[in-house]
Amino acid sequence: MSQLLRVHNFVVSSDGYGAGEGQSLESPFGHADPGQLMSWAFGTASWPNRTEPGGSLGLEDHLVREFHRNVGAEIMGRNKFGPQRGPWVDHEWVGWWGDEPPFHTPVFVMTHHLRPSFSLSDTTFHFVDDEPAAVLQQARTAAHGKDVRLGGGAATVRAFLDADLVDTLHVAVAPVELGRGSRLWTSPDELYDRYEVDVVPRPDGFTHYLFWR
Amino acid sequence: MSQLLRVHNFVVSSDGYGAGEGQSLESPFGHADPGQLMSWAFGTASWPNRTEPGGSLGLEDHLVREFHRNVGAEIMGRNKFGPQRGPWVDHEWVGWWGDEPPFHTPVFVMTHHLRPSFSLSDTTFHFVDDEPAAVLQQARTAAHGKDVRLGGGAATVRAFLDADLVDTLHVAVAPVELGRGSRLWTSPDELYDRYEVDVVPRPDGFTHYLFWR
């Protein structure tokens, strides 16, 4: 298989939610605390939002580092791109990430409400209203032979899993329950019949699941 | 720190030996069984000697893959290069690796018995009779800004540790005792005062130690 569709550094709660309920501009993860969900990665040397040099070079750093390796395009759902719902009122919103988005590739945002493509630094956002398989085909072409990363959220990853299009997944299960929100799964063992899996429990209470096929 | 000196995929027995006693052409690891020592890596997709496609994409594959990332030169001891001792009888021996050595960079072989440099495919072997710090300086220059990998054997890694020149180490401790041979350490905790460490026990009985500072 030459071009994989990969999920990396995707965090869910112990009950399988990738984000809480009630996403808004102020709360991109709804009632979930993103600091708690992403705490496994904050201390690593490769964490892109580090403000100081240094950081851990342990196992978590190996996992964080995979995020960019050989990735030529990203696919994300509209709720990862922004908190708006329905038709765009204007095109001022350009994502959560400021002038230097951490993608550095074409990004395909899945939405029923199209708008023109635009670029920020070396990231270009395209808006597509299509089925997962068709979006993946566009992303593969844009990736010029490299892999495609599936960025989330949970509903988007779920849609590609249901279409059996995902080749590898790294999911970190956080030691916290959310109870409601956007759900990836009831339990990781839902994927055991379709994927090989490596389960890596860690001292910080997170468990990393590496799936491949 | 811009150019790290890194140890990767270095295996020792539970009692700290990197190779057994009695290295020879037929037994590069002496009385140790290299198949047993390296078994943790054989099943991974990134294992360089794979003859079939596929392989695991779990945690071990992440570790194996680090071997080449951003490496611009390698340093090794003469006993990693070959089984001969003392002056070279001739220069026919060009290493264990055939026409395509897995290094793809300049390699600095530490020996008191110099011989001319030579190239095989995209690997060039240089022979140097110098102290660790001086050899590292040469390797850093040859690496053109990339990191330098310290390839072993145990005595060579030990020499660079004693000179406090090693920045990161990945050591896999195998579930096997060797009793004698070339020793890296009595116990990994000898390094705990100088390094941060992440200890990762695995279902196959190996424990991976990731050291950094």
TrEMBL record, chains A, B:
Database matches in Pfam families: RibD_C
InterPro entries: DHFR-like_dom_sf, RibDG_C, Riboflavin_Biosynth_HTPR
Superkingdom, natural source: Bacteria
Coiled coil start-end: none
Occurrences of domain Bacterial bifunctional deaminase-reductase C-terminal (ranges): 9-185
Protein name: Dihydrofolate reductase family protein
Species per Swiss-Prot/TrEMBL record: Nocardioides plantarum
